[in-house]
Amino acid sequence: MKLLPFLKPYRWPLMIIFFLLMIISFLTTVPPWIMQYAIDEVLPSGNANWLPWLAFGILLVSLTEGILSFIQQVFSEYIGQKIIYSIRNQVFHHINQLSFSFYDKTRTGDLMSRIVSDADTLNRFISFGLLKVFTNALILIWIFITLLYWNYLMGILFLFLIPPMTHAMFVYARRVRPAFQKIRKHTGILSSQAQENLSGIEVIKSFGNEGYQHSQFTEENEKVLNHTLAANKISAFWMPYAETLIGFFTGIVLLMGGWLASMGQISTGTLVAFLAYINMLRRPIRQTGFLLNLFSQSDAAASRIFDLLNQKDSLTDIPNARNFKTIQQSIVLNHISFAYKDQLVLSDINLQIFPGESIALIGPSGAGKTTLVHLLMRFYQPTKGTLFIDDIPISHYSLSSLRTKIGFVMQDPFLFNGSIEDNLRLGSPTATFQEVQQAAKEAQLDSFIQSLPSGYKSQIGERGVFLSGGQAQRLALARVLLKKPEVLILDEPTSNIDSITDSAIMDTIAVLMQDRTTITIAHRLSTIQNATRVLYLQKGHLLASGTHQELMKNSDDYRKFVSLNMKGTSS
Ligand SMILES: Nc1ncnc2c1ncn2[C@@H]1O[C@H](COP(=O)(O)OP(=O)(O)OP(=O)(O)O)[C@@H](O)[C@H]1O
Question: Which value does ipTM take for this structure?
């Protein structure tokens, strides 16, 4: 049902497919007609000249059926693929819009398994399963109409065969569906584990943790195996059942049909044709097991995909959202509180930041510094209070204009597999090459790039593995420089790089900070000394605000924290 909106654009091609299926299924039921005619009319008359024509008729019917099936198959594959293409695109677009709270509770591998393999299952359902069900149902209807036309008693007899068939299908589906749901769930977990393991391979190897990871993976893999074997056991039940059912139907028809024939109610040819029809049910009944499996898998896959599409915690633009260009007056945090779940991480923060200020944010680990800058980027919505820019709530600005004008440098920057130039252009795809190079020069990266054989086109590998820590950090700074942000948010690097690289990076940061409103999560004494204002956060509370000198004088907590934690010589 949920698929209907996706099928709607293809209603005409789908109608054509349905029309083709009606003809194909009708043609499937034609050969027994010909047999009936041969037995009842041609053979008793002793005129064998008709037989080659009847044989040719059967051949012609099969050939036409084959050609139409080919056309229908190509058509349905095309539509199935197009539908899956748009589902995948829509899911990917939708999850990209979702806020951080969604990513906090979702595992990447699970998302990947939904986008890739669940979508594939749906494709098989649309381009194959659904059509087979239609074909089989149409064949049953055609057979029923034919039998009714020949003799109403045979039609009724045929109707009596349907309930045992549907009952078995119902029982089977009820057992097989949960089994497939479990397989899907554990496959999602398995692919999350694999994904997490591969992303963290450096940490795993450095801790010699391969054995533990392997045992975790094996444990989950075993669950997938066991659930699959259990599902297969249920599936294996279907084939013998189908054969028994056909044998039972053949016996009943022979008994009842033979009786009708002996009473002169039906001809011998009709009885033979009826038996041929029963035999023709073999394929649909056998396929039913496979189709029910596919339906159960698709049902599980569809729920997982539509679950994603129904996720509503997106931070989206309000209608007619404003374009954020520059700060004229100030950024104001008015009674801001925030909780990820139940526990408050930020409590009643009140703050005003003026254009051109250089703010340093410090505090113990877990104090809420990162959370605070995430709220400024509007990654999350405050639980209480409002954030204003120039007296306008931040939620009134479009997300894209806001994030284009805010440069965010993370402590551990993420680089993408691709060329240096691609990575530099991440936030500024339309920048000229001169601008790209200028940003690299300012980040003191240009001479290194020039020394590479492929220059700016050099590939940096997954997550930038071909670069050193310092080069990666400078590249991350350069891509923010290229964006020419209005506000700069910086999580000061603390990684263990040599002092020359370190001072080069600090020089680049100084270039970045020039003439900009800057908020730095600071780890160095020099940064807090140079800041126009320092904010000291503790357990989610803004305990102190002022210049470094003022706070050193007035706040015991601040003084203690600085002397124990800040990098660099104490003043
Ligand atoms: N995505 C999240 N989901 C749930 N809790 C979170 C999440 N991110 C952070 N927290 C919790 O919120 C609190 C504040 O975390 P935050 O990262 O803002 O602190 P921080 O001051 O930046 O710490 P650090 O200096 O160690 O980076 C911590 O107790 C942390 O466990």
Answer: 0.97
pTM for this prediction: 0.72
| Strand 487-491 with 406-409, pairing | parallel
| Residues 359, 304 share a domain | no
In degrees, rounded to 5, the angle at the alpha carbon of residue 559 between the alpha carbons of residues 556 and 565 is: 135
What are the residues whose beta carbons fall under 8 Å from the beta carbon of 263, sequence distance 6 or more? none
Residue 229, phi then psi, degrees to nearest 5: -65, -40
CA of 488 to the centre of ligand 1 (A): 21
Among the atoms of ligand 1, which is closest to the Cα of residue 101? 1
Alpha carbons within 13 A on the beta-carbon side of 528: 31
**What does the DSSP 8-state code read for residue 267?**
-
**Contact yes or no for 458/452 (Cβ under 8 A):** yes
Closest listed residue to residue 327, CA positions, set 292, 376, 278: 376
Regarding the beta carbon of 366 and ligand 1, being less than 6 Å apart is answered yes
Same domain as 430, residue 281: no
> How many domains is the chain built from?
2
- Distance separating alpha carbons of residues 5 and 267, to the nearest angstrom: 50
Q: What is the pLDDT of residues 73-110, one digit of tens each?
A: 888 888 888 888 988 898 898 888 888 888 888 888 78
Measured between its terminal Cα atoms, the distance across the chain in Å is 69
